[in-house]
Design a protein that fits this description.
Helix content: over 70%
CATH class of one domain: Mainly Alpha
Order of helices and strands: HHHHHHHHHHHHHHHHHHHHHHHHH
Oligomer: single chain
Strand content: under 5%
CATH superfamily of one domain: Tetratricopeptide repeat domain
Largest sheet: none
Low-confidence stretches: none
CATH topology of one domain: Serine Threonine Protein Phosphatase 5, Tetratricopeptide repeat
Distance between the termini: 40 Å
Number of strands: 0
Structural class: mainly alpha
Radius of gyration: 30 Å
Number of helices: 25
Mean pLDDT: 92
């Protein structure tokens, strides 16, 4: 104990290891040595000692709590939760145990039970704003919004607490009061202009497709926090949502260059690059490089092919595009966009009859693909199948809005992903 008090954990460990050899299965020795290992961040070595101590003195709530803490540090949360439950049963008046139990229950998705444990921790501790906010967050997760709001508003000086406004923002978001939620998130960011608060405000705008406001927040956040990947992802997605595909391209390209195996960045870059004219496509070379180095990503290869097979493309680009297209079809033969491109390539080669099969395959996988109906109508017309051509032309008109609907659908999916990004 003297060695520990002066910070000499090595000496404490040496003494305790000698004591353990002389006195095996001794609770005080096992518990103390285990905690020395914890102090040295050696959780794997600490665990068997703390497990032994918990067996040797099963009535010790401290032993159970220490065991639970070590298990948590080893990411064995289910076992940690069981240990903290035992500790709370042995001593329900320990505020730290109740708090740890509540946190683990919340991680496990048991928000109602988490709120109960945290409520007990608040009652035992009193005047701990951080703990109160943790309790309120558990209530929000449990859907008890009124009680959560009461807990936050009862805090002293809550109006000047960025953390309190952040929780109130989540409460209003859950209620569907988006204007009030944005106001709270803005207040939190003003009180504490941290990356987390700037992110939360930008996400609130992004969540409800208020893209211009989201752009402003993420632009400012990206400048203030240049190392924040999620700020850049939020900015690129806000640009994309606002239809500013050209502005989104360099941001998605920079993200992909920094994370060269990220399929989401590659797909979003592909969607943006194929949605704009030739202007602003310089950064799209990043997508082509990605597609060449990731032969299993058929979607990226398809986007890259679209970029390469332009009307006045260089022969080398045409060869690269056709190679990528073959690669995409081998990898994902039922990908409608790839089959459509194969039909288009065959039509460019004058093989109208040969274009029919891939176009039919594209439409079998995606019947609402307007451009495939259009190309199939041309193929039928050129091969003398006039009645079928008229049918396909009518279907092309019917599905004329499909491309924009696809963009909207994917944007919703990506927006949901971005909203859920935590760091």
């Amino acid at each position: 104990m003297v060695a520990q008090d002066r910070g000499d954990l090595g000496q404490a460990r040496t003494i305790l290891e000698k004591l353990r050899r002389l006195h095996p299965s001794n609770f005080a020795v096992d518990e103390s040595l285990g905690m020395v290992y914890v102090g040295q961040q050696k959780f794997s070595e600490a665990l068997p000692l703390l497990e032994a101590a918990a067996r040797e003195q099963p009535s010790s709530d401290a032993a159970q709590a220490n065991l639970g803490a070590a298990l948590y540090r080893l990411q064995r949360n289910h076992e940690a939760l069981a240990a903290f439950r035992r500790a709370a049963q042995l001593n329900p008046a320990n505020a730290q145990t109740q708090q740890s139990l509540g946190e683990l229950l919340l991680d496990a998705g048991q928000s109602r039970k988490a709120a109960e444990a945290l409520a007990e921790a608040v009652r035992l501790t009193k005047d701990d704003p951080a703990l109160t906010l943790e309790y309120a967050s558990a209530l929000v997760a449990a859907g008890d919004l009124d009680q959560a709001e009461q807990a936050v508003n009862a805090m002293p000086n809550s109006d000047n607490s960025a953390e309190a406004h952040a929780v109130l923002g989540e409460i209003d978001e859950k209620r569907g009061d988006y204007r009030a939620a944005a106001s709270h998130f803005a207040r939190a960011a003003a009180l504490d202009p941290s990356e987390a608060n700037a992110w939360a405000l930008g996400v609130e705008f992004l969540r409800h497709w208020t893209f211009d406001a989201a752009i402003r927040e993420f632009q400012a956040g990206s400048l203030k926090f240049p190392a924040s990947t999620r700020m850049k992802l939020g900015l690129a997605t806000a640009y994309f949502g606002a239809g500013k595909y050209g502005e989104s391209i360099p941001v998605y390209a920079a993200l992909l260059q920094a994370d060269k195996d990220n399929r989401l960045y590659a797909e979003m870059l592909g969607m943006a690059c194929t949605a704009v004219s030739s202007a602003g496509k310089g950064d799209c070379a990043t997508l082509i490089a990605y597609a060449q180095s990731h032969p299993r990503d058929a979607r990226a290869a398809t986007y890259a092919t679209t970029l390469l097979l332009t009307e006045n493309a260089d022969p080398a680009d045409v060869a690269t595009g056709r190679k990528l297209l073959d690669q995409a079809i081998r990898t994902a033969p039922h990908l409608p966009e790839a089959q459509y491109l194969m039909g288009l390539v065959r039509q460019q080669d004058g093989d109208w009859s040969g274009s029919i099969a891939p176009l039919q395959a594209a439409l079998a996988a995606k019947p609402q693909m307007a451009e495939a109906h259009y190309r199939l109508a041309l193929a039928y017309w050129r091969t003398g199948r006039k009645h079928e051509a008229q049918i396909e032309a009518a279907l092309q008109k019917k599905y004329a809005q499909a491309q924009q609907q696809d963009l909207d659908r994917r944007l919703r999916e990506v927006t949901t992903f971005v909203v859920d990004v935590r760091n």
